[in-house]
Design goal:
Chain lengths: 367, 367, 367
């Protein structure tokens, strides 16, 4: 019976007690994507975010609105009611709420009682995303929304996708920060055997964690070789994975011919927003926006890359789902031994842990 | 972020601590309908009532019998055994029980040990219902069975229906006591817009809670207009909802032409027994018997009203099912702000709360 | 309301506190069948045994291997990885483990860290079975593997089957030690009405519990009558049920003509290994190997008996599944009144209880 050495296991268990995992409280003082902009319209949209049940819609003047999906009267879900102008009418006893969540009509009585209302979530729309703030509303500073400015920029063309991921958001972040998994999880899609062994540099500051991996020279997988025309075995593939916030991870990659000086040839760049919005402890809204800065007019490239990437991202979803099955079972003996390439992920999980602790200590957002 | 005022929420939470809800203990000292009379026959019927698994059958001389569905020997469900004359033979090791629940045969030994038996539930058959008593059997007083005497009376004709409701019985009672929901839940079936705003009177005494709502003048929905012929917009619709016991709610309604004196014209009356028998905390046997005092010979009226009513009652089942989804999730922040029309329902829930507390305090029925 | 006498129920509840049941801890210091030998090959086999998730395979030189199905790195199931020679490569980040569970490669770094590994379970192959040891590996004494030597013996011919039983292993053992259930559970298959009333002898020593039941004279059911030719009503059927270990129960039966002296006629014998390997508290791997010492060359007899027996054993699986539904619900009032024929089963459950207690007290196998 082989086992990790006792000292290793104990050290791992001690380290884990300072790292966020699926059981960590949600971090409230952050912006999270609650929906793609084009999902929010004149039909009531029901969605659980950070464990909170929300109903969303867009007002007649175009503003996205999110409120708690529970009537203040008898807890009936407002999403089962009707949208009437810019108000929601509860489907049970007809209480009507305005866009600010105030109850403005109780049909069974002439005068509407004062002070009844439901919680609303401050929302801000930016490019393809609707961001929501789950902490104290007085702290909802738009300047803290993670930047994705290239998405509102004609120099890039994008496609978007979504997974209802049956796994937790911490594991998704960890997956994204250690791309050595490309050689194994994505062996049949966009990984290559040399990926796991490629040299890398790490950097972290102020809650950002970045790892840059240089696979040079390499043979690109079809998803990149075909649109760039770099079909040979001396391509360069420089990938940066960056945790920018609990609600945003950006992967960018540059491709070029490693045998030519960069300055004299085209460099192709792609950027993918991986947007993990916690749904419950064990599930995540996984929004994806994939962009490129080349072949901007060619929609067949968009479709080709989107198809290929979805095959790969679906592999991640399967991995994270299997992992969640393990992690969701309580196991007092659990250990996770970290290796060198876990550096950025461990730092990120420590950061999330500290943030999560602070989130508990701060006053409840319901106040 | 709008929210109910803190004082409102705190007052609501304080009030809720004195009101029964899905988590309240069952009230044992009551009669509950365990089955329609025509469900209990010579096949073993398995059903959970007040959390207790029962097996039921009818003896050769016609008496309904209910006993705990668990052999005293190794807990095998008796409902998986066989009915033999007036005895049940366990399907595992063959122990035989008589109609009183006494074990009268152990096949593997010559003499049957004394004192082995399973609990039986006192049953009484009344019209379409079989009522059972779940408290101490010495207190099983038939006089306490709620009266539904019109069901045994040739002046009324009835139809019966059943839902296995995925919601708790307290919410069903509350639904029935506040019919302002007709304008919203039943907007497409038997509700009308004026219903929620109609004047009402309330009355309560000795554990009965009654609300009478007068919608006058009104246009009746087809379910009532068609059989009564009151198709105009000056009909009177006088509805009384009455909580008569934890196991019975009766809704009666009278219809007539509001422009004529009542004495000079026909008054049409319907009465519906809504029978909520708790199954588990979160599910209810919802028996329904609907009766009318007119068009007694016309079975097409029976069928028409039954179809129409079932559409409406199914809407309630959907509402209560959605509500149960919310209520079943533990939420320490939950609040329910009551409005004026909740008066009778709040009084009823306070009454159930007190009864439920008393039920815990009293000696266990298993004794 | 009949009930068992209070004194009987209290005595039963007191007795139950000293008897193993579905909630008892697993007994680790024992050998259990983890798989049929022919299930373990060059494909990774995933299976939960005693609550532990395992991955199994066979090395190139034919040795069966079982290890914990969880990478030491980030807990990803190894069964979702790949078998490469005699090593398993994790499907997430590529850590490679040898047959002893030692991590021998971390692709993202040049040198493999020392001391990383996963637990392996000592395995021994015996005839159709692969046995595994879940206690401390230093105690894994092959001499303690229950003997099934006839299975490796040309004088017997066998068939094998398997059920993923949705019931606990204690109930399966109890089922096997009280065959009075044949008259009821198997009334349509291999039970006969006289079975439950037949005389029996019991014997127990050193953790073995045996009951021998003599049904003489009797009419054999088709499964035995047809292959033996004993179609009359004066057959002898002598059955011994023997609990040999927590992981093995053997039922053997002899059939002959009760009107002739045994010495002057053929005696037909069958032996069935019932192998209950706990999967979780509420589920059991139920391996079955059925053997006979007659008609050795006749494969149609093998198939006939196998079909007939599986009909009967499926009846047990249904019974135990229904029973588990009852036992899995917490019920502080539960009682189980034992009768005379429960003697061996009660003794067996007391023995398992003591063993389970000792299993908790002993040092954890993970050490």
């Amino acid at each position: 019976m082989s086992m990790p050495q006792v000292s290793l296991r104990m050290a791992s268990q001690k380290a884990m007690r300072q790292m966020a995992d699926r059981n960590s409280p949600f971090i409230l003082d952050e912006w999270y994507v609650v929906a793609f902009a084009n999902e929010v319209g004149r039909a009531l949209l029901k969605r659980t975010v950070l464990g909170l049940k929300l109903v969303m819609f867009r007002t007649q003047d175009g503003a996205p609105i999110a409120m708690e999906d529970r009537c203040a009267h008898r807890s009936y879900p407002l999403s089962a009611g009707t949208l009437s102008g810019d108000t929601i009418v509860c489907g049970y006893h007809g209480l009507r709420y305005d866009r600010a969540g105030n109850c403005i009509e109780v049909p069974s009585q002439q005068h509407c009682p004062k002070g009844i209302g439901v919680r609303t979530i401050p929302l801000i729309e930016r490019g393809p995303f609707v961001w929501g703030w789950f902490g104290e509303s007085s702290k909802a500073d738009p300047l803290r929304i993670p930047t994705t400015s290239w998405l509102e920029n004609g120099a890039w063309v994008s496609s978007q996708d979504y997974f209802d991921l049956p796994g937790n958001y911490v594991s998704l972040h960890e997956n994204l920060l250690d791309l050595t998994h490309l050689s194994f999880v994505h062996a049949q899609s966009f990984g290559t055997p040399d990926y796991a062994r490629a040299p890398y540099e790490v950097e972290s500051k102020g809650g950002c964690f970045r790892i840059t991996r240089s696979v040079v020279p390499t043979r690109l997988p079809p998803v990149w070789a075909q649109p760039t025309g770099l079909h040979h075995d001396h391509a360069a593939r420089i990938t940066t994975s960056e945790f920018r916030a609990p609600g945003l991870h950006v992967v960018s990659a540059r491709f070029y011919d490693a045998n030519l000086p960069v300055s004299s040839q085209p460099v192709y760049e792609i950027r993918t927003c991986h947007v993990p919005t916690p749904q419950t402890q064990g599930s995540t809204h996984y929004f994806i926006v994939h962009s490129r800065d080349f072949a901007l007019q060619d929609s067949s490239v968009t479709e080709f890359m989107r198809e290929q990437l979805m095959i790969a991202f679906r592999e991640d979803v399967e991995v994270l789902s299997r992992l969640e099955d393990v992690l969701a079972r309580p196991d007092p003996e659990r250990y996770e031994i970290s290796i060198a390439s876990d550096g950025p992920a461990v730092a990120m999980r420590r950061y999330l842990f500290v943030r999560a602790q602070a989130s508990i200590a701060s006053p409840s957002p319901v106040g």
